[in-house]
Amino acid sequence: MLHMLQGERSRGLIGNELTQERDDQGGLGDLVNFALGLLRRQYLLILFVTILGVAASFIYLQVTPPTYSAQAKVLFGNSKIQFGQQQSILADSPLDRTQLESQLEVLRSNAVLVSVINQLKLADDPDFNAPPRPLTRLLEQVKARFGIQVVRSTPNEEDLVGAIQGRLSLARIGFSNVIEIKYDSSDPQRAAKVANALADAYIVYQLNAKFEASRTATTWLHERLEDLGQQALTAERAVNAFRSQNNIVAAGGKLMDEQQVSDLNGRLVVARTQTADALTRLNKFEAILQTSSPDAIPGNAHLDASLSDTLSSPIITNLRQQYLDYSRREAELSARVGRDHLAVVNLRARMREMRASILDEVRRLAEASRSDYEATRQRQEQAEKQLAQAVAQSRSANAAETTLRELEANAKGYRTLYESFLQRYMGAVQQETFPISEARVISPASPPHSKSKPKSTLVAALGLFGGLALGAALGLLRDIMDRVFRTAAQLEATLHMPCLSLVPLLKEVEPKQLPRELQQASTAFGQRTIARHSGVFWAATEMPLSRFAESIRSIKLAVDLNVTDTSNKVVGITSSLPNEGKSTIAASLALLMAHAGARVIVVDCDLRNPSLSRSLAPTANAGLVEVIGGGISLEDAVWRDPKTNLVLLPTVKKTPLFHSSEILSAAATRQLFDKLRSDYDYVVVDLPPLAPVVDVRATSPLIDCFILAVEWACTKTDVVQHALHTAPSLHKALIGAVLSKTDMQAIKRYDSYHSDYYNNKHYGRYGYTA
């Protein structure tokens, strides 16, 4: 047993490593597996929807009339012919996208379409006077049968225009100035005729529009020229009359008074400049005299700087040079003999004399500057008086001059405008008889050789791929809405617990009768022998090499390998809802354990619906409730199987039990299970379902480990989750879940792993049968 346990753990570690490796790969492989699984599960639905899509596309192709499209191409904005052409009287705007869109609207306009309708007599066209549809014809027949008059209206012009607009397509080709005119019709010849007629009507419409615009502009220009000529002549006469009345004479393009004022103004500017210069020179001399004295010390920097920078008198320059020589000698003697020596004192006296001479020369220059300033100021005043007199004399001529200039400007403007309009009028007269269209047909429409719609290949492809896509979407939606357990991986991911086994769905199996000697030995138990009416409970022992038996062995192995603080003798089998196969699993597990030689008792604790007892001990009149109540001993209540030595403690439902949970949680029940734990190797308990009743929670102290049975493809995921959520005491002792009633053929469509695992070819190599 120890070697088996170590081997199983080794296999578990290897399996975990392989699972981790598969999880690491993930990605595209998982997506491909999911797609293949979806295809296996929903291929019938996808195939059915695809067939419907293809059939719908073929029906559409059969009932939809063919449509032919003819295209004509028109170039807009071509270069103008220069023959005899002058500048246009209409302004040419640059060609842009807005202008092209405007031309497209012109092509769709009623004026162009009505001319095409009248030219081709489209009112009698079969496209617009088609026979009524079958449904419309049937309604007309019903109305006629009841005496209701049916009147078919002839399409009017507005209806025809709307119908043509619905069949007409206009588009700009790329970034060029080419407009494509496409018209759809049931007749290829008619489609080409209408497209060409639309192009011709558009060009004629443009020519007529240009002709009307040119004629209107010419008429307006002629009238305007007459008015402008009269206005220009009147303005020129007014200029000459005003000059004669006011004796206005001009020299060199200017009036005489204006020339005199200009000369005086120039003289005044020169006089003011001279006066300013003289005043500046006088101010400098006065500033020097105010800040200098002959008794100043030899090192007076202000006088030296002023004389050096501002005065240009040669006398002052000579005196200053002598002063500088004395200053140098005084400095040298002072250094040799001292400042108080007689020679030094004499030099200082000579320096004072030099400074006094310089100041005298400055005073003389200041007097001269004052005389110059007075002279220039008098000339300035004289110029100002003469200018004032000239201005006073010219004031009387200003009003006349202003009026004259205004009259001359008006006359010149009228004359210029007249000449401009005359030039435009001459060009308009020449162009009026030679209108040029800005558009021309570069590619006329020809009858198409094949229909433009419906496209048979495209419609068939859309039907095929649309059906595939819709079928896949419906299949995916069906998978998403399928909220039941179908694979072990789904169960483990949803419930966060291991899936112990996938128990196959068994059909009714004929039970094997006991040998004669076992039938005779059964009398030793007082005729309390477990019944063999249904072979499903005995399949694990009667067919030991079946998939069913192997799945029960997986459950037994999980019970044996479960590591807990206590023993795993008491095993409880429960489910979320009734009829999920828990009783079959409990009986099969107990029989398999007993067949292996263990002492096993199976207890039916489903007090409200003891289905296991009704199948294995249908005639029992006492059971678990009576043993707990003390009305009968355990030995007098159990039933036995003479072949496997399996012991059954049934439950007999005589009257409805309203307090079954209190019975299961009573102290007598605990004592009974303690006795069973000591007398048997395994105690398999068939528990009630979790969702309808609360009895399972009451048995938590009695059970060592729980196993949850989930019916394959039937029990909702949210039901199981809610049932486990309401019984939190089970989580610690719950060792795993079992998918019961599994359709081993159908599961291949949901789980590729089990599809290979339960492949009959591989499965039969080890002597197993289905």
Task: Walk me through this protein's architecture.
This protein has 770 residues and is an alpha/beta fold. Among the domains are: 262-396; 488-766, Rossmann fold (3-Layer(aba) Sandwich). It is 59% helix and 10% strand. It has 26 helices and 14 strands. The chain has helices spanning 2-25, 28-63, 97-107, 110-120, 134-145, 157-167, 188-246, 256-291, 301-310, 314-337, 342-431, 456-481, 488-495, 516-521, 539-542, 547-561, 582-595, 611-616, 624-629, 634-637, 660-664, 667-679, 695-698, 717-725, 752-757, 760-763, and strands spanning 68-76, 168-172, 178-185, 250-251, 254-255, 439-443, 499-504, 570-575, 600-604, 639-640, 647-649, 682-686, 705-711, 734-742. The protein has an 8-stranded mixed sheet with strand order 7-14-13-8-12-9-11-10, with helices on both faces. Strands 2-3-1-6 form a 4-stranded antiparallel sheet. The protein has a two-stranded antiparallel ribbon with strand order 4-5. The radius of gyration is 62 Å and the shape is elongated. Residues 1-25, 79-91, 296-303 and 518-525 have low confidence and may be disordered.
Task: Characterize this entry briefly.
This protein has 770 residues and is an alpha/beta fold. Helix content is 59%, strand content 10%. Among the domains are: 262-396; 488-766, P-loop containing nucleotide triphosphate hydrolases (Rossmann fold, 3-Layer(aba) Sandwich), CATH 3.40.50.300.
List keywords for this structure.
alpha/beta, 770 residues, Rossmann fold, 4-stranded antiparallel beta sheet, elongated, disordered N terminus
